[in-house]
Design brief:
With 80 residues, this protein is an alpha+beta fold. It has three helices and three strands.
């Protein structure tokens, strides 16, 4: 299984979208500072995730969330 996820920084206005086959491990890596891209923005909370049976499907969805309309979707979820 593959997961597409969105995490939001608790300190700054920053949403990161990623893909992983182990969501719990990946979140721990982000919050532990083991990712150069997200390290300055930690700590994070998970705001959205979806599960897919293939990496190709997950990557397609990840690309959507990284687009302008996908980012707007995530901002609206966070506002709820």
């Amino acid at each position: 299984m593959f997961f597409v996820y969105a995490i939001k920084s608790l300190k700054r206005n920053y949403i990161y979208v990623g893909l992983s086959n182990n969501l719990e491990r990946r979140l721990a890596e982000h919050n532990g500072g083991r990712n150069k891209t997200t390290e300055p923005y930690r700590p994070f909370k998970l705001i959205y995730s979806e599960e897919f049976d293939t990496r190709i499907k997950a990557r397609t969805r990840e690309k959507y969330f990284k687009s302008g309309s996908g980012k707007e979707f995530l901002k609206n979820i966070e506002a709820i």
